Amino acid sequence: MPSTTVFNLAGEALEELELSEQVFGVIPNMAVLHQVVVAQLVNRRQGNASTKKRSEVSGGNKKPYKQKGTGRARQGSTRSPQFRGGGSVFGPRPHPYHHDVPKKMRRLAIRSVLSDKVASDSLIVVDDLSLETPRTKDMLNILDKLPTIEGKKVLMMLPKRDENIILSSRNIPTAKVQHVSSINVVELLKHDYVVMPVETVRWIELVFGEGMSADEASRKIAAGAAEAEASEVAEAPVSETAETPAAENEA
């Protein structure tokens, strides 16, 4: 079973986290990975390139010169393709670019990339990824302390939106923050390291391992976090408050 080290924000190793063999321990399927990447890049194209045919170009209604006697080739319009300003022949027309890939193939591609990240020690798991205030310098300090190589691209995947993390990293050219529900193959391959908290790892295992939907996994993670917080509050020692007894009224 694959495993990885859990770090804190100070870069200290805390424990070993066992990962799902079904998600983080598969053999990468390069053929499926290539097909999913091509499909994702193709689907990003807008397909709005357009040119005008000779029937769509304005003007050119008058015959430029008489049919015979000029020694030149006969012409009926100055908007023919051979004229400057004329229509285009076989030019691009607006059309959709779409390449559909089955859901199982998309998920297999993501599992392949995640397994490769684990095998190459490029998946960095932290116990918690949060900041009290948005500050770029604090984010740079966190990235410096984590086992990443300076100058390499880092993708941080959060289980829920955190404005402090987003604002702290948006001025760092080598860092990008993304919600885990937007996980995709191209972003995983573009970045050298993937940093995620333990909750994100569990979300990925629920969705890509157990087949849950994104909403179901988010609700289960949120319920588990709330239950853990409630148990911590219940187990916390109650602070004893010193109460002075009220003085009795003397008769």
Q: Please state roughly what percent of the residues sit in beta strands, choosing from under 5%, 5-15%, 15-25%, 25-35%, 35-45% or over 45%.
A: 5-15%
- Helix content class: 25-40%
CATH architecture of the largest domain: 3-Layer(aba) Sandwich
Quote the distance from N terminus to C terminus: 79 Å
Task: Label the structural class.
Answer: alpha/beta
The CATH homologous superfamily of the largest domain is called: Ribosomal protein L4/L1
Summed over residues and divided by their number, the pLDDT gives a mean of: 90
Low-confidence stretches: 240-248
Tally of separate domains: 2
Shape: elongated
- Sketch the major β-sheet: 6 strands, mixed
What does this structure look like?
The protein is α/β, with parallel strands linked by helices. The chain has 2 domains: 178 residues, Ribosomal protein L4/L1 (Ribosomal Protein L4, Chain: A, 3-Layer(aba) Sandwich), CATH 3.40.1370; 41 residues, no CATH class. It is built from 8 helices and 6 strands; from the N terminus they run ββαααβαβαβαβαα. Strands 2-1-3-6-4-5 form a 6-stranded mixed beta sheet. A hairpin with a 5-residue loop joins strand 1 and strand 2. The longest helix is centred in the last third of the chain and has 22 residues. The protein starts with a strand and ends in a 16-residue tail after the last helix.
Keywords:
six-stranded mixed β-sheet, Ribosomal Protein L4, Chain: A, 2 domains, elongated, 251 residues, 36% helix, alpha/beta
How would you concisely characterize the structure shown here?
This protein has about 250 residues and is α/β, with parallel strands linked by helices. The protein is built from eight helices and six strands; from the N terminus they run ββαααβαβαβαβαα.
